[in-house]
Amino acid sequence: MPLKDKVVVISGVGPGLGRSLAVRCAAAGADVVLAARTQKRLDEVAEEVTALGRRAVTVQTDITDEESCRNLLDTALDACGRVDGLVNNAFAIPPLTDLCDVDFDAIRASVETNVLAALRLTRLFAPALAEHGDGSVVMVNSAVLRHSRRTFGTYKMSKTALLSLAQSLATELGPRGVRVNTVAPGYIWADNLKFYFRHLAQERGITTRQVYEETAADIDLRRLPEPDEIADTVVFMLSPLARAVTGQCLDVNCGEFHH
């Protein structure tokens, strides 16, 4: 149990990767503080965590709001007494439009959620993470870092900025005993992608499995990663197993891109 008796705060908790992050951290021995805008989602994931024998604290949070984030910090410390890990998982995908056409307000909104919110939370939690000299922050990024496909420009801008943010924070917080790393998933075989693949299959008159196999054909392992596999990588980064790892970005994509 590499996170035994640790306390991990996770933003952007929902039915996909956010759920897996919470459950896998709990399975690794951590108590978890769950943050999202939707209380129903928080409650559903909290039930799974408590079923594993770990504590789950839910906090309805708007990560773009300073006071809401301060409430998350205060609630976490009041309930658990400490914070050892922070996972910045919340994100927003902007309109998939060419940079030459995208509305500037859409760019600002993407940067606010994907970059500034992560900085806001990390700054607020930094003193608590540094208190015991072994804190860890993980930024959930994206394989959009590795390609320049049309219409993904705004998303890539924000995620590239998030990577730079993580690297700079690693340098700033390292002397205080806090590590900052990044995980960059590609496809994640969860509900949203399954829905999209079913849509593609219906449009083409083929099966969802055929769409999956076509997509996986150019990936080294010939499959798409599951949410728990991304989450297990985050658990590693949070744990003492990665105690000498900071400022790094680990791609988890079954070999779709090499970096």
Q: What layout of secondary structure does this protein have?
A:
Layout: E1 7-11, H1 17-27, E2 31-36, H2 39-51, E3 56-60, H3 66-80, E4 85-88, H4 104-130, E5 135-140, H5 153-173, E6 178-185, H6 191-204, H7 208-216, H8 227-238, E7 249-252
Parallel strand pairs: 1-2, 1-4, 2-3, 4-5, 5-6, 6-7
Organism: Actinocorallia aurantiaca
Protein name: SDR family oxidoreductase
Pfam families: adh_short_C2 (PF13561)
Walkthrough of the structure:
This protein has 259 residues and is of the alpha/beta class. The chain has two domains: 7-188 and 226-247, NAD(P)-binding Rossmann-like Domain (Rossmann fold), CATH 3.40.50.720; 189-224, no CATH class. Helix content is 47%, strand content 15%. The chain is built from eight helices and seven strands; from the N terminus they run E-H-E-H-E-H-E-H-E-H-E-H-H-H-E. Strands 3-2-1-4-5-6-7 form a seven-stranded parallel β-sheet, sandwiched between helices.
